[in-house]
Queue: 4 jobs
Job 1
Amino acid sequence: MEQLHIVDACREQHFRDMSLLHALGWRAAYRDSIPADYMAREITDERWVPVFRQNYGEGRYHGLLLYNGEQPLCCATYGPARVDQSAGDTICDFSSPDLAAWGELVSLYAHPDCWGQGYGSVVMEEVLRRLSAAGYPGCFLYVLRENDRAQRFYEKHGFTWDGHSLNVNLASDTTLTDLRYCRLF
C-alpha cells in the first residue's frame, strides 16, 4: 500500500535524497548523450547537496520531495526566475530577463525505476499550484534537447518551447542544448 506524501526540503536527509534523485535521473536520461567519464567524475550522488542546503538557507528556491513512506520517488526545485545566473555551481549561464516576473521550475527528477508511474505529475502539479498561488503569471523551465522523454512530459503539462535556447558546454568535446519551455497560468 502506497503512503505518498509531499514534503518541503528542509533537512540534511532531504538534500541528500534530492541530490541522489538528480544523479540517478542524469545517469539514466543522458547515458547516450554525455560522455561516461564526465558522468563518473561530475554526476555524483552528493553533487547537489550543497546547492540544496544553500537554497534552503537563502529561502529563494524551494525543494519539494514526494515520498512513499521513507522512499524518495521524485523531487523538484522551484522559485523566481533565474534572470542572470552565471555558471558556478551550475553547468551553464541562465539568463531570462524577459521572464523576470515568472516562476521557474529549476529541476524535476524522478527515480528512474518510477518513470511513467505518475509521480512526476504529482510533483509538477504541486509546483505549478504553488507558483500560481504566489502570483507568478506563468512558469518556465529548461530541458535538454537530447531529452525527448522530458520534453513530452512537459508538453503533457501544458508547456511549449518558446524558441529560446542556450548551449551547455560540459566538456571541450561535448555541447548540449537547453530549450526553454513556458506555460502561462
Job 2
Amino acid sequence: MSKLLARAKVKYKNALNDYYQLSLDDAYVDDCCYNLQQCIEYCLKYIVELNGENYIENHDVRAQLNKLKELDVKLPFEEEIRKNASLLNSWEAESRYNDDFIALVEDINDIKELANRIIEYSDSLVQIK
C-alpha cells in the first residue's frame, strides 16, 4: 500500500476517534476537522501518484483536483469535493492555529462521509492497478 494511502487511513481513524468525543471539548472538533482534511488531501495525492505524476506540494485540495483534471482522471465524487474545497482548505490551517475556530457538526458529518467514500474508492484503485 502507498504511504499516502496508509496516512489517509490513519488520519481517518484519528478523525473517527475525535468524532466520537466532539461533545467533550473543542480540541476534538479542531483535531477531527484537521484529520478529515488531511485524509482527503492524502487520498487525492495518492490518486495523482497512481496516475504516474507528482502531486502538487501544498495543502490545497483544489490544486490536487486540478492536477487530476489535467490528467483526465474523473472521480465519482469530484463535484462534492470541489463544493467543499474552501471549507477543507480552511480546516487545514484554521483548526490548528485559530483559537476562534468553529465548525458546524453538519459539515463534519458530511466531510466524514466524503472521506470514507474517498478512502473506499482509493482502496478499489489499489485492487485495479
Job 3
Amino acid sequence: MSLCMKEWLAAQNKVARKPVMPILSFPCVQLMDITVKELISDSRLQAAGMKAIADRVPTGMAVSLMDLSVEAECFGATVKFSDDEVPTVVEAVVQDEDDAAALAVPEVGACRTGLYIDAVKEAAALITDRPVMAGVIGPFSLAGRLMDVSEIMVLCYEEPEMVETVLEKCVQFTINYCKAYKEAGANGVVIAEPLAGMLSPALAEEFSHPYVKQIVDAVQDDGFAVVYHNCGDNVARMKDGIYGIGAAAYHFGDAVRLADMFEGAPADVLVMGNVSPAAQLLGGTPDSVKAATLAVLQDCHQYPNFVLSSGCDIPPLSPWENIDAMFAAADDFYATV
C-alpha cells in the first residue's frame, strides 16, 4: 500500500486511541501449523504469515520477521536453526584487524535476504489496510554478531579502529538492504539495535548512534519511515543520543520504565512499548498479560505520542491467548478513559 508515512505517523499522533503495534511475526507459525525453520526458508509462507496475523488481530502495522541472523549470515557467519526458536548466530567471522579489513560487503539478495525481500513484496500486495514494515538489524548489533557479542565490548576500548571498520561495512550493507525493501513496497523498516543498549552512553555515541543516523539519513523520507528499536538496559541513560538519531518513531523494551522515555522525546514522534515479550507474552497467562498491559497503559496513556506495543519481538511459541489478552486489555482500557 502506497502511503505518505509522514502523514500517517502524524495522524496517529493526534488520535487518543491508537492501535496496538507489537513486533509480532513469528507466532504466525502456530496459526499456520508450520515450524520456524519452514517459515524462514519460504517467502510465500512469510507473506502468508504476515497476512494471517493481520487477519487475526488489529495491529497498527504489519511487521516482517525480526530475524537478527539474516544479515550476519550474508557476511559469512554461521547460524543455528531450529524448529521452535528464532535463528541465532553461533560463530564470529572477524577475529582480528586483517579479518576486518578483508570483510566483504555482501550483495543484497545473498543467502536469505532475497527471500525476506520477496516476502515483504508479497505481503505488501496482500496487506493493504495498514503499513507493512520490514525488520533489519542495527549496525552495532550486526557488528557484534560478526565479532562476537562479548568480544566487541572489549574491542570498543582496545581496538576501536577495527570495530569502526566493521561498522562502516555494516552500514553500507544495511543502507542497500533498506533501499531494497523500499523498492519492494515496504512502508518502512524497524531497525533493532539491542546490543547498543548494553553500552555506556559515551560508547553508544561513538559506536552506535552515528551509524544508525547514517542509515536513517540515507533511507528515510516522507514515504518510508524508520522505527528505531532498543531493548537494552541502558537506553534510559542514552535517550538524548537515541532521539538525536532522527528516526520517525522509537520502540523500547521492558528493561526500562517506558514513561521515563517520554522526557526529552520529540513530541511529534511515536514512542512505543513495552509489555514484556518473554515474561508475559511467552511465559505469562492471559490474566498476567492483562495486568501488565494495563500497567503500561496507566503509566503512559497521558502522553499523546504513546503507542502500546510489545517490548520486543514476540517469541514464536507465545500462546495466542496471551497475545489476544494484550489486545483485549487495550480495548477495555480505552473504553473507560
Job 4
Amino acid sequence: MSYCVHCGVELDATAEVCPLCGTPVIDPGQPVDRISPKPFPTQRGEVKPVSKKEAALLITVTLASVSVACGILNLFLRTGQVWSLYIIGAAAMLWLWFVPPLLDRKLNLFLRLALNAGAVALYVFLIALANHGFDWYLGLALPIILTGGGLVLFLALVLRGRSILTTVTLLLGTTGVYCLFIEGFIRRYFTGSAALSWSLVVMAVCVAIIVPLVIVRRVPSLREEARRRFHM
C-alpha cells in the first residue's frame, strides 16, 4: 500500500497519478500494476437525455386518460354531481403548467405567466360550472386570480439580476399589497364595502420588516456585514 507524497491520499496499485492532486506516482519498490482493472471507470459515460417531445406526449396521454376515465365514470355513477369536472380541470391546469414550457424552453415570459394564470382561472371556472357559481367566480375568484397573476408578472420583470436583500424586500412588499387586494375583493363581494382589517396588519408587519432591510441595503457597511453573516 502506497500513499501520495504530496497530499498523502492512499493510492491504488493501478494508479499512475494521484487521483486527488495529480502528482505522478513513483515507487521503485512497487511498480504500477497495469494488468488489474482500475478501481474507477476510465471513460466518461453520460445518460442519454429524455426527448422533450416524448415527455410532453407522455404527460398529455396520462392526463387525458385520467380525464376521460373520470368523465366516463361520472356518467355511469349518477350521483347528481358533475365531480369529474374537478379532475378534468386539474388535468388541464397541470397540462398548461408543464407541457408548453417543456416543448419551448424559450417561451416568452409574459406568455408563460399568462398560461399559468389562465390555467388556474380555467380550473376555478370548471369548479364554478360544477357548482353553478358564476356569480362568485366573476365577482371574487377571477379578480383575485388576475391580480395575483399581474403581481407575479411584476416580480418576474423587476427581480432579474437583483440582490437577495432587494428580492426579499420586493417579495414582502408584494405579499402585503396582494393581501390588501384579497381582503378588498372579499369584503366588497360579501358586504359591499371595501373596509380593510386583517390585511392592514399583514401590511404593517411587511413594512416593519422592509424598513430595516432598506436601511441595510442603503448603508454599505451594514450591507457587507449582512453578506458576511448570512453568506449572501
